[in-house]
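Exercise 7 asks you to align residues with tokens for two separate proteins.
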Amino acid sequence: MTITKSAVTAVPVHELIAERWSPRAFNSHAVSQDQIHALLEAARWAPSSYNLQPWRFIVWNRDDNADTFDKVYATLSSSNKAWVANVPVLIGVFADRRGVDGQENGAAAYDTGAAAFSLVLQAQALGLHAHQLGGFNRSELQREFAIPDDIVVQALIAVGYQGDEALLRDDLRAKEQAARSRRSLNEIAFTGQWGHAF
């Protein structure tokens, strides 16, 4: 059985945002090259400071190269390994911290996050699901795939089709079934100055 989790928002928002969530139950159905291309194209058109476009991605498609995929899988935390086992595609998200005139790009992580979210929304638009994760060994990933020192490992994104949550182990199934929640706007948005609730 699959789960839908539409966000309960204070005011209406676009359905791509309201319907987007991060499942842990995936099936192993292949994601096509055309779909992957669309995800990367959506990320490519994200905004960035000075138009530096600091985002970089590595796609690991289990169908294309299971051995390489397994090397990424080996870097995951044990809790993530438990649910990523069926995911067909992992995408590494990286930020090039080199800026203008030899200066460090202070917006590199921010801009890369915007590109990653563009990718995630495009996945939603294609009927896929994307789950961003940070539970993995960054230094091991950097070493295993010869990522240059100027490139910062940001995240991994699991991409695929939603699977049956009943197949998850108990603790993960409980997370899958839990209601979505967010802080209130009064906690995260202010008017005029810090602490004046929106």
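Second protein for Exercise 7:
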Amino acid sequence: MRIILLPFLWIYQLVLILRHALYDWGVFRSTSFKIPVVCVGNLSMGGTGKTPHIEYLIRLFANKYKTAVLSRGYGRSTKGFLLAKGEMTYRDIGDEPMQYFKKFKNITVAVDEKRVRGVNTLLNLPNPPEIILLDDAFQHRAIKAGLNLLLTDFHNLYPKDFLFPAGHLRDITAAAKRADIIIVTKTPKVFSPFTRRRLIEIIQPKPHQNLYFSYLSYGRMIPVGETMQTATPRRISTILLFCGIANPYPLQDFLQNKCTELITVDFPDHHIYTQKDMHHIVNEYENILGKNKIIVTTEKDAMRLIDSPYFRLFKNIPLFYIPVEVKFHEDEQLSFDQQLNEYVRTTTADR
């Protein structure tokens, strides 16, 4: 199949090479800003864990600086610049921005498909942010972030992948040279020095790049919906997992140890759940024999469920989501935090 798709891959690759060259030559303009702008992105089409890494940065900065998150708002039904407000749903701003907005009360969340316009609009607010986090903007050369964080999945490293349509990359691997920090995400919690050395050999970071390794840490199950009075059973025989994310394997591995049987119903990334989808999930649950069974989904999927007119179908069904956080191996968290804080401190001081 890859051989058949090679001509399309070459065309796409040439277009990307030319686009980057035009930015590098100054034909296309890249706009930079005087305040700290941190970009979190990847070269792949998704599934590297951008959302929990953005949340890590929010926790790192939000108590010290007026922090804003700017996202494209993938999957939203609106266009242009929007500030997240209480009456909005994921349809207005997208599921990931809605998750940030609901989870963190001390930040500004905004969406705009044109990142330069979005940053300028944020800076012109009556109470402008002191730091801006760009969600999934590494490929947006029109904006030049002060610090670029490039994420790559442990099980699907970008040097081993191919451009779409032959693989899952949306940009050429040479674009990785623009990153200041590379993070290998979703690594095993038990991480050997041998594995670390192997990853360094594969990625081959440039002299100006720092390489870090993170893993996902899952929290306690939380009922979906504010009015649902459901406690997690002490003993769980069967878990029905449904999710619309790019790579659910870390969550599947986590849940395997929480039950006797794990059943997974997969949906595409950022999937909008229809009435038919929810009937299918409920029917799958009801067809599971025995007691002590529950349904589990991700926090991002929960954002797309709670505002759905069909969410009532889950009434009296034990439905939970599992929050997830990013952690770094060994003493890397201290080094990572220091590098980020130093960038923000020096950029703020130079204004």
